[in-house]
Amino acid sequence: MKIKLSLLDNAYDFLNSSLHDYHLATNEEYPDDYKRFWKSAIVDLVQSMELMFKEVLRRDHKVLLYERIDNPKKTVSITNALQRLKNILNLDFTDKDEKTIKRAIGIRNDIIHFEVELNTPELLNIYIIIFEFLHSFHFRYLDGELHNFILPNYWEAEALLIEQFKKTDQVLYGGVNLSKYYPIEIAEAQLFSTFTISGIEYERIKHGEELDRQAFYISIHCGDCAVKEGYYHVLGCDLEVCPKCAGQAISCSCDIYDEGDNH
Length: 263
What we know:
Elements: H1 7-26, H2 37-60, H3 78-87, H4 95-113, H5 120-141, H6 155-163, E1 170-173, E2 176-179, H7 183-189, E3 194-197, E4 200-203, H8 213-216
Antiparallel strand pairs: 1-2, 3-4
Helix pairs in contact: 1-2, 2-3, 2-4, 2-5, 4-5, 6-7
């Protein structure tokens, strides 16, 4: 059996792996020795960035992927890919972005090739900046929102990173411009798949799955909490349907939000 991954598929795998290890490294509930997961979080994030750079080069012309265009065997390094994006494709990188990218590359190389002493506050700052950069880079030069390629298991980690974005207070998330502090509410809502009503668990109704679509369905995005089709509503949304009586969840006589397990 052979497995073939495109440059982008490979990039997304590394990104999701990085978010997994970022969660392990930063969650205060885990032991201190979990901080070692910073190594793989940074390495995989930089590897994902390198593959995204190469995909943009490939889309312009495949020959740009290679160190020597007259001998297309070895692909360019991430540093050379960055220079080609700037100097040949004329993509815009701020000085701060470029310095942070180069610092992240340096840390990645140290982790792989040398003894390394990790400064976790610096790693966190670099991780946030690189993730924010990739969020923007992917939207501008690749296939739209990066969120669409992040596995649901890591939406919470993604949302917590978005909260710490430094360049913007608004983000495109699920096709809607939102406050950078709002995606965490959407992500956390996806963790609650049921409501408990009178001691019985009922599966929550996702946006777009309402039986009475005329009453509750306005568009592909919820008119109140902004989630898109297939997502659970943010808790307390005006347009969420009660899974028991099919009325408005926040106001029906089932008293969903009086149950301690439902908020």
